[in-house]
Amino acid sequence: MVKGLILVFVVYLVKDISGHGMMLDPPGRSSMWRFNHSVTPNYRDNENFCGGAYVQNELNGGMCGVCGDPFTDPHPQNNANTGLYGTGIIAHTYKPGQVVEVGVLLTANHLGTFSYSLCVLPDVNSPEPENCFNDLLLEDGSSHYTITAEDIMIKNKVRLPEITCERCVLRWTYRCGNNWGMCDDGIWRPGCGPQEHFRSCSDIAIIPSET
What we know:
The protein is mainly beta. The chain contains 2 helices and 12 strands; from the N terminus they run αβαβββββββββββ. The chain is globular, with a radius of gyration of 17 Å. Keywords: Signal. InterPro entries: Cellulose/chitin-bd_N.
């Protein structure tokens, strides 16, 4: 159902939303309302950007909430487990070791890179800690996807680990690359130095195939 609905949203979102990006397959917690009308809507679900570049990098020392909220927001933060949007609804069920296709919509392309991580939720009644997340690799073995200027709807093939879980959290992280900063070679270029970040967390399950 999710994949069938994504195409319906793409044209609408690109035309009518002036924000930045969201994970739609599997849906992030803030975007679950687009596929399940029983959950609380977040009409700014493409703005899980750690409070913005100034808040993240100048006020919060580069820190971001575990699932894209401002780092200093009170707990549980809106997009964390048990928060306003962290209702525990399973967005998708996968198999151990599966290569999954993750769909992300950019409503404003800021270049940069995507990366993914996974947390086996240690306590379903508490927010997930940052140290719970382990990095995932893309199918080709790379740690990140580099965005091109033409990208709008991106589908990344991500390899899941050989584990099982009834409640895991798949996290998308978008490090933008359009701000200018000092590079390692001492030259100012876009993409160097502190950048804006986006995060989205999706509740998933990883269950073995029935034999």
